[in-house]
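Ubiquitin carboxyl-terminal hydrolase 12, Melia azedarach. Tokens?
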Amino acid sequence: MGSVSDDGMYIYVCVCVCVFVFLPLFSLSSSLVCVRVHMSDEMFYCRGDKNSFGCTTNSLHSQNSIEKYESGEFEAGGYKWKLIFYPKGNTKKNAIDHISVYIAMSDTSSLQLGWEVYAVFRLFLLDQNKDKYFILQDSTGKEKRFHALKLEWGFDRFMPLKSFNDASNGYLLEDTCVFGAEVFVRKERICKGKGECLSMIKDAPSTKHLWRIENFSKLDQECYYSSVFVAGDQKWKIQLYPKGRRHGSGSHISLYLVLADSTTPAGSKIYADYTLRILDQVQARHLSGKGDYWFSETKKESGWARYISFSYLNQSGSGCILKDVCLVEAEVTVHGISSSM
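Tokens:
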């Protein structure tokens, strides 16, 4: 449908109505047969251009019920959408003693980087006694911005559970309820700026890896690597230059932590803090270097070119080398991952 703006230009608005039905399996009629997917005691099905969801009485009311239900996809304004229903409220939003209902964009993988969709929507719940809809929409009437970090909008406290379950209100009759959504896509745009998504890891665990280097005095290559170990979800290794590197060449050994994961996506960064130690095998007075760094595909290593001098390393009392064996330990904690949007 179209309307005329103040400057005489037509503005076209896309409209789609989706009906979201919750009902017991035994009430299905033969006309509701287009698509059927069984999941435990749940069932998805659709008819024509309407998307529906069916579930048994137990799945709606039992204490072991699934936290949320999602409708099948429907289309509005060239985009795919779905309804999300929390029959006992969205606990993450502290929606106690209420049902929660949301509209969400679905299958956005094909959209261009930086996409934004602005839409106005209304959500419905059918009063089956009076054949009228209870309608809820944003009080300001303003459009909502959907994007990669905000795929859903709706109402944490759509309706009190007491009102929803009261048969005299007509919202839940014979274990059947009917939801609907009306979506108006007003505009869309591509954000040209760059975006990053940062995921921080709460109470991130640390990982230790011990590298035993034998025949240390006979090392004649420029660089050596430990075996690969895993910290966080990434692969790492220790890098040693026994004759030194850069400004440590000829006077110090150089020691680094290296990101060894070849599957790191382009544009991704891993934030980690780490400790590299040369263990004192005599008195346990270990030498430690601590650092933190954003590792990436193009910046894979962090450490010290002048980690420890040859003179101290080779002192008999330092305990760094015993029976020509050097023990190097890495302790790594991955705290966060940043990826391009």
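Residues 252 and 309 are 4 Å apart (CA to CA).
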